[in-house]
Write a structure and sequence with these properties.
Elements (H helix, E strand, L loop, with lengths): L1 E9 L2 H32 L5 H6 L1 H7 L1 H4 L3 H23 L17 E4 L6 E4 L2 E4 L3 E5 L10 E10 L2 E9 L13 E6 L3 E5 L4 E3 L2 H19 L5 H34 L2 E5 L3 H6 L5 H22 L2 E5 L23 E3 L6 E3 H11 L13 H4 L2
Parallel strand pairs: 8-11, 11-12
Antiparallel strand pairs: 1-5, 1-7, 2-6, 3-4, 4-5, 6-7, 8-9, 9-10, 13-14
Bound molecules: zinc ion.
Length: 379
């Protein structure tokens, strides 16, 4: 099982400059390699492989001093990323999706570089991170560091005005699916209530989500007004820092919530995230909500995998229209917050009704009664 661990780096001023120069060198290499592929195809109908571009690197390096100040495997990784972008492009073409040809990277759009083989160009030395062509960089090793697994690679990442390192670590597979399934919960993801649990618990939108929309709107307005001015870079940083703050708060919130779900239930049932349903949503901060849903599902999935709990995804059709007590379809539009069934008389919060339907659609066969759920006791 692969896991990523992120740590803050504290480079010196000189090291920050090297980091920035490395990013720029990688970005230029990426764009040049993309142009080469594009030209070869447009002029000669010839496709260029990763191997060809990699073999060409030493020649490029002898002509360009900037390339010489970056570790060779970091440069190879840049070509790998481009190759991956083309693979994804062809896969989308084949699948009949919107293809999205690989794009040139603008300044500020290239924010990381990777040492693909930890131990080669990157290693620990005296609790510092030693990087080839950079030196020993101060790192804050909280959680005791990622030393229990095998570090495969490390990526240096620029986040607005901070630097981080992400280690990809191979961990031994855990007791996958070993837990006996006795308790189960259905999770409905919504907009009015971020999360509704089939147990009757409603988790309202946290404050960071409510405020983030207004704060971002104000910040974005500044950004668009000042276009072309000297202040623009300052404003861009301001917005980026705000985005980062929301991201951190969101991650913290979902780490706690997913931990709670995995610790309390052996089976956790989500509805399949439905893009069409998301787009219908007129809620202005919907991109934030969408990202939030995905994050909760992702965090729950990997925590469940580690703890031997099971995550299931069920068909999302009519989860809010169907009565969770008698299965009658009770049509309601988005503004109706209450499920009131004319057939059996069940009156229940709309999202809780959906969460109960989601739970009942699991194929393990658990209804949640086993956990003595209060919400299901009345049906
Ligand atoms: Zn009913």
């Amino acid at each position: 099982m692969l896991r990523t661990f992120k740590f803050r780096l504290y480079p010196s001023k000189a090291q920050s400059i090297i980091f920035e120069q490395t990013l720029e060198t990688c970005r230029v290499l990426y764009n040049n390699a993309l142009e080469e592929r594009k030209n070869a195809w447009e002029n000669e109908r010839k496709s260029t492989s990763y191997r060809e571009q990699q073999n060409n690197l030493p020649k490029l390096k002898s002509n360009k001093s900037s390339l010489q100040s970056v570790h060779s495997q970091v440069l190879q990784d840049v070509l790998h990323r481009l190759d991956q972008a083309f693979h994804n492009f062809f896969r989308r073409v084949k699948a009949g999706e919107k293809p999205g040809y690989p794009r040139f990277k603008a300044v500020n759009r290239f924010d990381s570089f990777t040492y693909p083989q930890f131990g080669n160009g990157a290693k620990f030395r005296d609790r510092k991170l030693w990087l080839s062509k950079v030196g020993e960089v101060n790192i804050k090793l909280h959680r005791g560091g990622p030393f229990n697994g095998w570090i495969k690679n490390c990526t240096i990442r620029h986040d607005v005005d901070r630097w981080f390192v992400c280690f990809t670590v191979g961990l031994p597979d855990t007791k996958l699916g070993k837990r006996e399934i006795k308790t189960a919960v259905g999770v409905d993801l919504g907009v009015t209530n971020l999360v509704a649990l089939s147990t009757g618990e409603l988790i309202e939108n946290p404050r960071w989500l409510k405020h983030s929309e207004e704060r971002l709107a104000v910040a974005q307005r500044w950004l668009s007004c000042k276009k072309g001015s000297k202040n623009r870079e300052k404003q861009r940083l301001k917005v980026a820092r705000l985005h980062r703050k929301i991201r951190c708060q969101r991650a913290d919130f979902f780490h706690k919530l997913s931990r709670k779900l995995v610790d309390s239930y052996d089976l956790i049932v989500f509805e399949k995230l439905n893009i069409a349903k998301m787009i219908q949503n007129s809620y202005a901060a919907k991109c934030i909500v969408d990202a939030a849903w995905r994050q909760l599902v992702l965090f729950t999935q990997y925590k469940a995998e580690e703890a031997g709990a099971v995550v299931q995804f069920v068909d999302a059709a009519n989860t809010s229209q169907q009565c969770s007590s008698c299965s009658t379809l009770v049509p309601k539009d988005l503004s109706e917050r209450l499920h009131a069934c004319p057939a059996c008389g069940l009156v229940l919060n709309r999202d809780l009704n959906a969460a109960r339907n989601i739970l009942m659609r699991n194929t393990v066969g658990l209804t949640g009664r086993a956990c003595g759920s209060a919400a299901l006791a009345g049906c």
